[in-house]
Amino acid sequence: MKMRDLTELAGRNLREAVLRNSLTTLGIGVGVASLVAILSLGVGLQQLANKRLTNSGLFNAVIVMSRQNFRGGFGRARGAQQADSSTPPRPLDEEARKELAQIPGVVEVYPEVRFPTGIKFNSNTYPTVVAGVPQSSKGGGAYDGIEGSFFSGPDAQEAILQIELAKQLSNNPSSLIGQNITLNYAERQALPSSSDGGISGGFSVVPHEEKLKIVGIISTEPTTGAGGFGQVRLIIPLDVAEKLQAAQTNDLRSVLGGSGARPNYASLTVKVDDPAQVEAVEDNIKARGFGAFSLLDASKNLTLIFGVFDTLFGSFGGLALVVASLGIVNTLVMAILERRREIGILKALGASDGDVKKLFFTEAGCMGLLGGLIGVLLGWAIGRGINFGANVYLHRQNLPSIELTAVPIWMVIFAIAISIGVSLAAGLYPASRAAKLNPVEALRYE
Amino acid sequence: MGSQNGAAVRAEHVAKHYQMGETLVRAVDDVSIAVQPGEFVALLGSSGSGKSTMMNLIAGLDRPTAGAIYAHGKNLAEMDSAELAKHRSRTVGIVFQAFNLLPRMTLAENVELPLRLAEVERDERGPRVIEAIERVRLSGRANHRPAELSGGEQQRVALARALVNKPTILLADEPTGNLDSKTGDEIMELITEINQSGVTILMVTHEHVRAEKYAHRMIIMKDGKVVTNGDRS
């Protein structure tokens, strides 16, 4: 029998016991819905995590340090072991910064400027750590939830407070926006070369002050490079931070390393045009004698973790689908009993065993297809419900909205395919049993 | 082989035995018959004589325990299940005492069913269904369901369904068994008409008078064996 005829006859048969078949189909739908809801939550969380990590600017960035620093600090990290030891180690100075900016695919190279400071506000001093961030950070998404605004320009005398510091400064953090603070910091001043031709250069440290206007408050903790001591609570424009010439922790190493008063950077952040190029750029940097690492591996691990999560919870959803498939077996076995005589008539009129088998298979497949479609819609609706509930909670906590669930097209196709596959598997036994019916006995059946 | 004499149906030493508890039932036992093309043969016998079993074997609905059955020279015993299905679809048409129409289908849909099974093209089906319905004089009732038809009309639909694939042999199992005398005669007239159009008829019946009136020849069975295999005289 041709597929169109099979489908027509199967549809007609399914409409005959409409309540029983609808309930069976709904059972499949519920199984698929639980699968889709769980997977959509897994995928949604993964997308959320990826988005947050991408917004942090670390996934299209390579952190570069001098190889000495790598051995001391990151020497135990993966990047150090892979650093190309055939090239001599290089200092991380201005020349290196310019060189790295020339590497294909690199869009920006900026140093980590991070130093301890004391903030004077209302005649009180608050110790904290300040960091400079480039103007390009604004577009990364890390400042999406900012109260107030980002820096008006790359050299604006402005500051953004992290909410914890803002709470220390005032009981009403929002009122701080527009007010001035004074930054107390240690300025590095170069010493003249010694007249006896001994050690050249060196620097002295003198206290200095800088006034800044508070323009924004953020609740997140933006990444400002390779990290290091203390938690950054105050953010200022990178150009301003560089001009301050504040003494940093690696200055002592620079002096002892022979670079004298010329500043060496603690680390450089190399921004890459496309996250896919990160690995190539990282290798290129290592080949030039620098230590480098990226968070590419962290991203891979994240995918693995979510893969395990999806498989584990998807299995529970799949279990519901398997239980629902037993409903198909039951429905079709009942249909064989009820339609025994009809099967005999079909065989008397020329239906082969294969035709009868295909007819029952098609009925199972139709229930699977319909159950799959219902399940996808139901699963999507459950996902939206979870999303709605989560956002209501977040809204009450004054937190920004998120997309907790996602139903991509591959999931729709996968869910419907699984539904049809499970239904066909469930139809195997009934179809085979129907096909084997002896037509003479079937025709005698009342 | 005796099957090569051009018979529409030839059975040679056919047996159908089955076990019922500890008893071996010989439903058909060493039966040899032949039906020539265009012949109208009545297979007579009382209940349990084996006539319906014999018809089922010729229809390819069942397989014999021993012997061979030929339809236009083709041995049914050598056919696999799919070939037997094809035999039932193309070579023979079957009508039953209980009509066996599918109640949820209309008259036209019931008649179309064998065409679907034989994978006849859709545009060809309509005219063939109309032709078959006209042949049994039920035009105008095409969209009625079996429950809306009388017993005689239902048997006419069954005849139309059996003939729609243009078989050469019509097997009728007690076609008038569920009908009153007048309607039974009408059905017999219709079957005679079908026979006159060239279709070979093998009719199972227990009605001796009707068989004498309409059939060319009567084969009488008793206890699974043929006791008379001759013409009506």
Note down, in words, how this protein is organized.
The complex is a heterodimer of chains A (446) and B (233). Chain A is α+β, with helices and mostly antiparallel strands and 446 residues long. Chain A folds into 3 domains: 3-54 and 302-444, no CATH class; 60-111 and 267-294, Alpha-Beta Plaits (2-Layer Sandwich), CATH 3.30.70; 113-264, no CATH class. Chain A has helices at 3-16, 18-55, 67-74, 78-82, 94-101, 163-169, 238-243, 251-256, 278-287, 296-338, 340-348, 353-396, 409-435, 439-444; strands at 61-66, 106-111, 114-121, 124-133, 147-148, 158-162, 180-190, 203-218, 232-237, 268-272, 290-293. In chain A, helix 10 (296-338) packs parallel to helix 13 (409-435). Chain A is elongated. The two termini of chain A are 26 Å apart. Chain B has helices spanning 51-59, 81-91, 107-117, 122-135, 151-163, 181-196, 208-214; strands at residues 9-20, 23-35, 40-45, 66-71, 74-75, 92-95, 169-173, 200-205, 217-222, 225-231. Chain B is globular and about 50 Å long. Chain B starts with 8 loop residues before the first strand and ends with a strand. In chain B, 47% of the residues are buried. Chain B contains 7 helices and 10 strands. Chain B is α/β, with parallel strands linked by helices and 233 residues long. Helix content of chain B is 35%, strand content 29%. The chains are: A alpha+beta (446), B alpha/beta (233). At the A-B interface, helix 1, helix 11, helix 12 and helix 14 of A face helix 2 and helix 3 of B.
